[in-house]
Each structure stands twice: as C-alpha cells, then as structure tokens.
C-alpha cells in the first residue's frame, strides 16, 4: 500500500528535529520512488528555512561501494554545503562520519531529461578533486529507502582546486590514490564510476526528470566514489591525489 507523501514528509521533518533520521515507523514501508519524493520535500523545507541547495550527488556507482552496501543501482541526493581542501571538522561535529573519494564537476550550462554524453561533456565547466563527507545516521544497508529519504548520508563536500575538463578529457583513466593517516588505503580509476564519471551526470539528468527536477548552470555534481567508503574518526587525516587533476585533504580534529 502506498503511503501519503505529505504526511510522511511531515513525520520525517518532525523526527529529524528530534535527532531521529531513520524513523522506525517507516522501516520497510517505503519504495525508492517514495523515498526520493520525501528527500526532495525535506530539502525544499531546509531551503525554505535558509539553507541553499548547490548541487547533487550520485552514489553507489562503483562495484566496490555497491558490494559494501548490498545495493546495485545508482542513487541521488542533494548537496547543500562545500568546504575547501584542508578543512578541519570538529571532533564531535559529525555523526559517525566517513568519506568517499570522487571527482566533482561544476556545470556551465543546464541539463534536463535524456541527454547525450557529448551534451554532458559540453555542459561541464570545471572538475574538482573532492571528498564527499558522509554521516551514518542509520542502518542504510538494511534500510536503503530510509537512507535515501534522509538524503543519502550526505553531510558535506570538500573541494580541491578546480581544473577545466579540456585539461583532462579521459576521466575514466584518471587514477586516484587515497591515504588515511599517512597510509595508502586504496587506489582506483574513474572507470569504476559507471564506466566514466560523465555517465553519472547523464544518469542523474534523466533520473531527476522523473521527479520534475533538472540540472542548472552553476550546479555541482558529485559523480561517485572511485573506491569504497571509509570511516573517519577524531584525529584522522584523509588525502587523495587524482593524477593530472589535483589533491584534496580533510581532517577531523583530535578528541
């Protein structure tokens, strides 16, 4: 039985205010379509309350991430905050934080509905080496729909210096090396992201069309992680180097 979306959005909003991000009353009840509609309704409320949506994320794009979470199709969520490379989050500022290692793009022109890869490439203005900072606010493995309603674990985006796409045209061949506290913990290529990070943008443009949304000039898009998600703890330093593109770093203050 389908749920009443207006009532569900109200319930999720009230639960969020009391620190319950995966409302138990909705466990195992939502379709993914319903979860996205609740997500978008909550984001609209947050924007009305003074936040600013600046873009989107595409998640679960790499096989390593899909295997980690047991879910095998891409997902989307909204981005409302960025921080510069080197940003230090407070030791207790985040809820069970972690990071994903991604290329973020900024669009120079909008995209809507079904678009070609050449249209996607032409729309990209600049690319950033980046980390998505996630929060594990509930059991997303067992309750993926609740996780999507709660904006797909999204908390923040940490951006390195931008480069123009023309300077690095073969994004599927870009290699990243990830260090956590000085130890190399993963390496990966852009081909892990749906074959090419640009494919994520193509998927997103079409998917958003089903919900009456589109991509605008100036939006940023987190295209998906090259490697699996890693947790972050107080005192941690994460660094990623993207060959030919640049470096990004994030820290969590010591406890």
Can you walk through the features of this model?
The protein has 255 residues and is an alpha+beta fold. It has 6 helices and 14 strands. It has one domain: Fumarylacetoacetase-like, C-terminal domain (Fumarylacetoacetate hydrolase, domain 2, Alpha-Beta Complex). The longest helix is centred in the N-terminal third of the chain and has 17 residues, at 32-48. The chain is globular, with a radius of gyration of 17 Å. The mean pLDDT is 93.
Mean pLDDT: 93
> What would you report as the Rg, rounded to the nearest angstrom?
17 Å
The description of the largest β-sheet is: 9 strands, mixed
Class derived from helix and strand content:
alpha+beta
Number of domains: 1
Please give the number of β-strands. Answer: 14
Any guess at the CATH architecture?
Answer: Alpha-Beta Complex
User: What's the CATH superfamily, by name?
Assistant: Fumarylacetoacetase-like, C-terminal domain
| Portion of residues within helices | 10-25%
Helices, by number, come to 6
Name of the top-level CATH class: Alpha Beta
CATH topology: Fumarylacetoacetate hydrolase, domain 2
Poorly predicted runs are: none
Please trace the helix and strand order, writing H or E for each element. HHEHEEEEHEHEEEEHEEEE
Distance between termini?
Answer: 47 Å
Q: Which features characterize this protein?
A:
255 residues, Fumarylacetoacetate hydrolase, domain 2, 9-stranded mixed sheet, 32% strand, globular
Fold blueprint:
Blueprint: H1 5-17, H2 32-48, E1 55-59, H3 63-69, E2 75-79, E3 82-84, E4 87-89, E5 97-107, H4 117-123, E6 124-135, H5 144-149, E7 154-159, E8 163-164, E9 175-180, E10 183-189, H6 197-209, E11 220-225, E12 230-231, E13 237-242, E14 246-252
Parallel strand pairs: 1-11, 3-7, 4-14
Antiparallel strand pairs: 1-2, 5-6, 5-11, 5-12, 6-7, 6-8, 9-10, 9-13, 13-14
